[in-house]
Amino acid sequence: MRTGPGWDASDASYAAEVAARFDNIVPAAVTPEGRSPLDILPAVHARSRTPTRNGGNILWLNVIADRMAGAGERVLLTGDKGNAVLSMTRPAGGLRAVARWVLGPLRALQPRPPRPGERFYVPAFRAAHAGVFSTYASFSGRDGFVRFAMLGQRGWGVDPMAQWGIELRDPTGDRALIEHVLRLPDAVLYPDGCSRGLARRLGQDRVPDRVRLRRTRGEQVPELPAIAMAHRDAYRDVLERAAKLAPFRAIFDSTAIQAALAQLDANDSAAAHTLTRIADIGLFLLRETA
User: Fold this and answer.
1) Residues 6+ apart with CB under 8 A from 75
2) DSSP state of 290
3) What does the alpha-carbon distance between residue 64 and residue 53 come to, in Å, rounded to a whole number?
4) Residue of 276 and 3 predicted with greater confidence
5) Are residues 23 and 244 in contact, defined by beta-carbon separation less than 8 angstroms?
6) Counting beta carbons within 10 angstroms of the beta carbon of residue 194, is it exposed (0 to 12), middle (13 to 18) or buried (19 or more)?
7) Would the pLDDT of 257 be above 80?
8) Rounded to 5 degrees, what are φ and ψ at 2?
9) Could you give the CA distance from residue 18 to residue 203 in angstroms, rounded to a whole number?
10) Residue 51: CB partners within 8 Å, gap ≥ 6?
11) How far, in Å, CA of 272 to CA of 268, rounded?
12) Who contacts 270 (Cβ-Cβ below 8 Å, separation ≥6)?
């Protein structure tokens, strides 16, 4: 899991504090139940004929979907778009903005350092998609807000209805709400220059201040590195079998993948998520080429 300044290993205590304030919120813990993503992915692929994109999150989404199916429920309310719509991140201002404006052209002339995940792709694939690797979508400010709000399903699923038989509905993605927030002046979006200021103001006297004024981020699936380590042999088997397929070899560097798997430790969250995504694609290709 990610550790250090700015990160929390778990959001559980924050969720519990919010739930304690409302009689109509009954918190229910969702755990992997001893499974790894590799135990769940084949069934998802069989239903949807698509990879999932973010295999780590299926550990909790699959449990929720199973519980919903048992209760006869088909619609799951989320607040995904609220991260941008009601909790817009303030773009850099002052000296930081000037520095970006002045140094931006100079940085464009310098060789771009590779991102951590790039080591898993073969050189030919990286070269063919250099434009994608060289861009990074920022979701701060109004422009980032629009990009984020206009995205379709993201993160854990290509099509939740096809993959789990449930529909995700997000009230914070309502078009009228998005258009209203876009009309608000910066003084409302960022009161006193505070990033995510609108959400913090709306939460006043509604949620505990420790939650409302929180500045740290929570790790998604913090236990994934430990799960991947515990199921290392299963990961290795899937990745070795996938490496025999030409479509897989045209994209991924199996030597780098196996080295990362062998060196994986409990603090390497980024590698665990990346390896899980690659294994997701590997399992999907193994099924489709069988």
Assistant:
1) 166, 167, 169
2) -
3) 18
4) 276
5) no
6) middle
7) yes
8) -75, 135
9) 11
10) 45, 158, 280, 281, 284
11) 6
12) 2, 116, 117
What is the reported pLDDT for 52? 82
Element (DSSP H or E) covering residue 242? helix 232-242
Whole-prediction pTM: 0.81
Mean predicted lDDT score pLDDT of the chain = 83
Distance CA 247, CA 43 (A): 22
d(CA 18, CA 211): 8
What is the spatial distance between Cα 207 and Cα 17, in angstroms, rounded to a whole number? 8
Range of 12-26, 229-243, 259-273 with top mean pLDDT: 229-243
Rounded distance, CA 78 to CA 174, Å?
12
Can you tell me whether residue 167 is helix, strand or coil? Answer: strand
Provide the sign of the torsion angle of the four alpha carbons 155, 142, 202, 2, taken in this order.
positive
Question: What is the pLDDT at residue 99?
Answer: 46
Decide: 287 and 42 in contact? Cβ < 8 Å: yes
Long-range contacts of 252-258 (CB under 8 A, 24+ apart): 252/120, 252/121, 252/122, 252/125, 252/278, 252/281, 253/119, 253/120, 253/121, 253/122, 256/119, 256/120, 257/120
**Sequence-separated (6 or more) residues with CB below 8 Å from residue 32:** 59, 60, 63, 223, 227
Angle between helices 269-288 and 254-263 (to 10 degrees): 130
**Structure tokens, 168:** 């995700």
CA–CA separation, 266 and 249 (whole Å)? 28
